[in-house]
Design goal:
Length: 155
């Protein structure tokens, strides 16, 4: 699970109010879903429950595209910095932004193609299964063909 929600749940969208060390309070909006519109100045994302929201995009917006690395040993970091032009309608995106009045400006956009999103979900499920295997007494091989220490299992 993510930062918001119970274990085993994935947040779709929401707003949280945060306080910085200097005492300033701001509202952060997040959404995870399918990109329905994107331009050099804005991105619109629709969550699985049908909720849709638009964020302004500006020079301070950081954009990453591609699969997000989990930082396991031997994994190449494939999460690359990009620009909003790398994002296409139909991509799956995770957007965080700062709310001001009735609008929100994206601070971070992470997008991947639908195929990459399927791969990421499969990896996440395999990772959760690994976790379950490790915390229980059951021992099982992972679908990746290697165990958690990074040594390859005999085929």
């Amino acid at each position: 699970g993510g930062m918001l929600g119970a274990p085993g749940t994935e947040p779709l969208h929401g707003e949280i109010v945060v306080q910085a060390e200097d005492g300033t309070v701001s509202t952060v909006r997040m959404i995870r879903g399918t990109v329905t519109a994107v331009s050099s100045t804005s991105i619109t994302v629709k969550a699985e429950d049908g909720y849709s929201t638009t964020f302004a995009v500006d020079a301070s917006t950081t954009v990453h595209s591609g699969l997000r690395p989990h930082g396991k040993p031997g994994d190449a970091a494939v999460d690359t910095a990009g620009s909003i032009s790398d994002v296409a309608v139909g991509d799956v995106a995770d957007v965080h932004g700062t709310v001001s009045g009735s609008s929100a400006t994206a601070t971070r956009v992470h997008s991947m193609t639908a195929a990459e999103a399927e791969q990421a979900e499969a990896d996440r499920l395999a990772h959760e299964q690994e976790h379950a295997d490790r915390s229980g007494s059951a021992t099982g091989s992972t679908s990746s063909g290697s165990d958690v220490s990074g040594t390859t299992l005999a085929g």
